Amino acid sequence: MANVSNVKLIIGFNDPDLDDEEKNEQAQKLLQEIRELDEIEAAELLPDPNPPAGNKAFGGILAGFLMAEVSPANLKKLFGFLSDRFGNKPMKLKVKATDGRELEIEASSKEEFEYIKQQAQEFLNKQ
């Protein structure tokens, strides 16, 4: 079997009606759910690369953001999972290919999730 590198997907809850604590709660809930999926290789809350001086809120993580690592073959399944559970909530997603390319996309409906799933697959196939 060929050695295929995993894709990193950064998922962010960007609902303007939620404060940072509520966004973080959603990210933590999603983190617990996706860690149980067989398709996920790794998942963690996203650390803040530039936390404000003296900031202790959320333990140095970006509120509402997490990173999941998945094989390219399972990316479609992860998008389906996200669409089923969060299809009507605004989310920001960043797909990082193994060659360093990045695709940033946003979705707030099941239709948009379907579209971005296709966009991400095309993006990864253009290597």
Structure report:
- It contains three helices and five strands; from the N terminus they run E-H-E-E-H-E-E-H.
- The chain is an alpha+beta fold and 127 residues long.
- The protein has one domain: 2-Layer Sandwich (Alpha-Beta Plaits).
- A five-stranded antiparallel sheet has the order 2-3-1-4-5.
- Strand 4 and strand 5 form a beta hairpin.
- Helix 2 packs antiparallel against helix 3 (110-125).
- It is globular.
Return the CATH class.
Alpha Beta
Low-pLDDT ranges: none
**What's the story with the biggest beta sheet?**
5 strands, antiparallel
N-to-C series of helices and strands: EHEEHEEH
Provide tags for this entry.
Alpha-Beta Plaits, 127 residues, single chain, five-stranded antiparallel beta sheet
